[in-house]
Amino acid sequence: MKEKKIDRLYFIIFLILEFIIIFIFRYFDMNKSSTFIITQVIFVILYTAIYTVIILFMDKIISRMFCIEYNKIMREYQKKDDAKVFYDKLKNIKIKPNTPELKNTYNLSMSTAAFKNGENDEALEYLNKIEIEDEHILKVIEDERKTIMDEKAKMERQNDNKNDIQDNK
Description:
The protein is mostly helical. The protein has a domain at 65-168. The protein contains six helices and no strands. The protein has helices at residues 2-27, 33-80, 83-91, 100-116, 120-128, 135-168. The radius of gyration is 27 Å and the shape is rod-shaped. The model has no long low-confidence stretch (mean pLDDT 84).
């Protein structure tokens, strides 16, 4: 969605600048087609280079803004150890992660927060969103997945036991 908006913006600005170049050529009565073509080629190269630099810069700014907000939430959680507030703040974070590494970090934290709030199915969903190739980190994720599955099974057994007790009464 974001990329479509950026591409549309790129195209609109590109057309506006093209019309400005055509207007300038007509206004100054420049009729040489070779000059026009050379100007167009230079314009396209410059515009693409500037656009690429701006997009890269915007990605860095967005990543930085996410990191600031995310670190603030993590520091607050470390101080207060309130899993509900941690979960709610992470879920409602204003700036979403935009790189694979930040998405993985966010999903791991969301998984932990959901697990600490008893939302085992949601915790597993967040763990399943993590895409990484590092074997050590994969092992940590699998250990976390196993812990969540064990806790889920334990809760289901407790519910079954409660139901059996109620049925026996």
